[in-house]
Write a structure and sequence with these properties.
The protein is α/β, with parallel strands linked by helices and about 500 residues long. It has 20 helices and 20 strands. Helix 1 crosses helix 2 and helix 10 packs across helix 16. Bound molecules: S-adenosylmethionine.
Length: about 500
């Protein structure tokens, strides 16, 4: 998606489907605006589908496209098409204040940071954005979609109209999500907000979650700060409603209502794993009685002893709901807490010290500022919690929220990398009860109602802390808890877990 104009011309068939949908929704309005019309595929289709259209207005920056679009004009419609820049143009000129306005089109698919990489001049001009509704939320972010900025600029004008008007644009899903997210704090007052997902791979050969975002203003409905999600290819079937449920931003409003009784800020101390930025030398494999690092160097036990070596679990390992007994990787753990002096390793394990010294250059070239002014061979994401023998872990990155139990291996607790979140326990039974509750129906439904799986890290510490495992255990039948891969837990195990951790304000 890397071109300076975010240029993806809409296939005629898609433009037609979009217009037919808008017509069926009652948006067959007199003035139709195509804000960045490109070759004019929407402009061409509008008179084919819409019966009431009298004027079509719009903008396009690239002259060749502009000229091509002009050839699509017809006699019975008034056109005002400008070869101009959205960011400096007076958008008010596109609207007819005396009638209903429909904005329809496909805004550029490009982000502010992509534009700065191209050193592009095609960026919002600062002077134009002051006072824009929702502007603070948008520009507070270091990166945003240009389509989000353009949508807000158009919404800003629509909000000043008294007539029923609609913006219906093809955008990435994230644009729609961002807009609904900050609506309660803005002075944007829609009457209805829907998205119709499209297959961007098929339509544009782009791998992105994208939709037709339709926001209606001055309609009859009372807006409840939620968005109805449909598929453009099956627009009558509601998939879900996402958005605001009181003060919570949720991915499924109905499901959230059913499971919100398990949503409380708890004291479970979710942690992420170790960070060292030197995987080539810190991460090891075990093969044929030898340690092998990422440089393919091999070490016998008398060349590198195991005193500071721990089993390691990475995101890709916690995908299966399982009790981990086989470990693919190991990690050298140089500290027991952040910033701890590491020089004692020289005496405690000379082979480890020699190994670290031999690979010093890999540590010295670590760029992240967290390593500056820290002892040699430092790592982060380490503390007492790292050495808890039993852990219940989840990858922050994978789509399905699967919780695994990590028992120790050869008396060494398993470590995780920093894309994995975990809670530590002192015994296996507590870990199994905790994981069984999290893998059970109630926790899974609560999690799915809160998360958008298209985000990069759907599961965060903040989200995990909200799952009230004790309430779930108190209200769940023992048979529902025993998920297949886990060893059986008894009612006694669950009761003693509840007794131990209920009201415990210091869950390590
Ligand atoms: C995703 S394409 C869509 C084109 C057309 N709306 C369609 O649906 O086929 C985005 C269009 O925005 C135009 N564009 C990009 N930046 C612009 C700007 N600052 N002002 C006006 N048009 C711009 C591009 O040239 C391109 O034609």
């Amino acid at each position: 998606m890397a071109n300076e104009y975010g240029d993806y011309q809409t296939p005629t068939s898609l433009a037609k489907t979009v217009l037919e949908l808008l017509k069926s929704e009652g948006y067959d309005f007199e003035n139709i605006i195509e804000p960045t019309f490109g070759k004019g595929n929407f402009i061409d289709e509008i008179p084919e589908v819409m019966s009431n259209v009298r004027s079509i207005r719009g903008l396009e920056l690239q002259p060749d496209y502009y000229n091509e679009a002009l050839t699509k004009e017809r006699n019975d419609i008034k056109y005002e098409l400008y070869n101009d820049d959205f960011f400096i143009f007076d958008l008010n000129k596109l609207f007819d204040k005396s009638t209903n306005n429909l904005i329809v089109g496909n805004l550029p698919w490009v982000t502010a940071s992509q534009l700065s990489r191209f050193e592009s001049k095609n960026i919002p001009k600062k002077s134009n954005i002051k006072g824009l509704k929702g502007y603070d939320a948008l520009t507070g972010k270091s990166n945003f979609d240009i389509a989000e900025y353009m949508s807000l600029s158009l919404i800003n004008v629509i909000s000043s109209l008294n007539t029923k008007s609609v913006i219906a644009v093809l955008v990435k899903d994230i644009v729609a999500k961002n807009i609904i997210r900050y609506i309660p704090d803005s002075n944007i007052y829609p009457s209805k907000f829907s998205i119709y997902t499209i297959n961007a791979k098929k339509e544009f050969n782009v791998s992105a979650d994208a939709c037709l975002m339709v926001i209606e203003f001055n309609g009859d409905e009372k807006f409840d700060n939620t968005v109805g999600e449909y598929s453009l290819y099956n627009p009558d079937k509601l998939i879900r409603r996402f958005g605001w449920s009181n003060d919570n931003f949720v991915s499924d409003v109905k499901e959230y209502k059913d499971y919100s009784i398990y949503d409380h800020i708890t004291n479970w101390n979710w942690r992420s794993g170790v960070k060292h930025d030197a995987s080539k030398v810190m991460e090891l494999k075990r093969d044929d009685g030898k340690w092998i690092n990422g440089l393919k160097e091999e070490y016998n036990d008398n060349e590198l002893d195991s005193k500071y070596i721990y089993p390691l679990v990475k995101s890709s390992d916690v995908r299966k709901q399982d009790i981990h007994t086989k470990f693919r990787k190991y990690v050298i753990v140089t500290q027991a807490k952040p910033r701890e002096d590491t020089s004692h390793i020289e005496e405690d394990s000379p082979t480890t010290w020699n190994y670290l010294i031999k690979h010093k250059q890999y540590f010295d070239k670590r760029r992240s500022s967290i390593y500056k002014n820290s002892p040699e061979f430092s790592m982060f994401g380490i503390g007492d919690y790292s050495f808890k023998p039993y852990k219940v872990a989840i990858s922050g990155m994978y789509k399905s929220p699967i919780f695994s139990v990590l028992p120790p291996k050869d008396d060494k607790p398993a470590m995780t990398d920093d894309t994995v979140y975990f809670v530590g326990f002192d015994n296996m039974t507590d870990a199994v009860v905790f994981a069984a509750a999290l893998n059970g129906d109630k926790a899974q439904k609560l999690i799915s109602s809160l998360t958008f799986t298209d985000s990069k890290r759907p599961y965060t510490k903040d989200l995990l802390k909200r799952i009230d495992v004790i309430s779930i255990l108190k209200t769940t039948d023992i048979d529902e808890l025993n998920t297949s891969a886990f060893s059986k837990v008894t009612k006694n195990d669950v009761d003693s877990f509840i007794n131990k951790y209920d009201n415990d304000l210091s869950l390590f």
